[in-house]
Amino acid sequence: MSQQKINRPDKPARDTIAPSDLTFGLSTCKRCLWIKYWFKVTMPGQFPLVKPLADAQEEHFRRASMQDLDPSLPAGVVKQWGQWVKSAPLVIAGRQTSWKILGIYDLLAHYEDGSVGIIDCKVSDSDRDNGAFYAPQLEAYAHALENPDRGKPFPVSTMGLLVWKLNGITETADGAHGFGVTQHYLPVERDSDKFQELLVELIDVIEGEFPEAGPECQTCNYLIQRAELESR
Hints:
The structure is a single chain. The protein is α+β, with helices and mostly antiparallel strands. It has a domain at 48-207: Alpha-Beta Complex (Lambda Exonuclease, Chain A), CATH 3.90.320. It is 32% helix and 26% strand. The strands form 3 sheets. The protein has a 5-stranded mixed sheet. It has a 3-stranded mixed sheet with strand order 1-6-3, covered by helices on one side. The protein has a two-stranded antiparallel ribbon with strand order 4-5. Helix 5 packs across helix 6. The longest helix is centred in the middle third of the chain and has 16 residues, at 131-146. The protein is globular and about 60 Å long.
């Protein structure tokens, strides 16, 4: 499997880069990433509660005051949510590419000075859910907002994670049950240099030859072990 080659078509199956691939894609398996962009084939995810929990978070914070989210934030209001953003073609090391960023943000706040703030909602108890890990993904949204394929650009002044951590089952006065959460806001610093480095790495992977499987990629490891069993 590690020596297997795939003949790729004349052009990739997509010309847009998903913001999450700057975090999960590069850090998980470059082979799966390559296949995704050339053939539009991905392993189906098994996260049945992620979408309803994310939808509940998003709905809860619509039109919320930013200072209610965290006192450190400037005065502003969440005015947009769940919208797609698409960037103009990316320029890498002075070369204009055919690649664009395309993604959907969770919440977008509008501040009184005309700038906006990106808020990425998470329901998790993982230590990985920190600002450093998700910074490239949020930076991709910021880039698309500031360099849109069409329409008015929006300057991004803040980015952050709004994290809900489940803390057990609660019971209401009428006997109903639900999950309680603790909430905290994690500011994410802008780092355009790191963002550019990861874009270069990602595009090099996509435009390069068929990569080796990621050593900890569950998808690749499963396929390798299955192929070995079937070849006996």
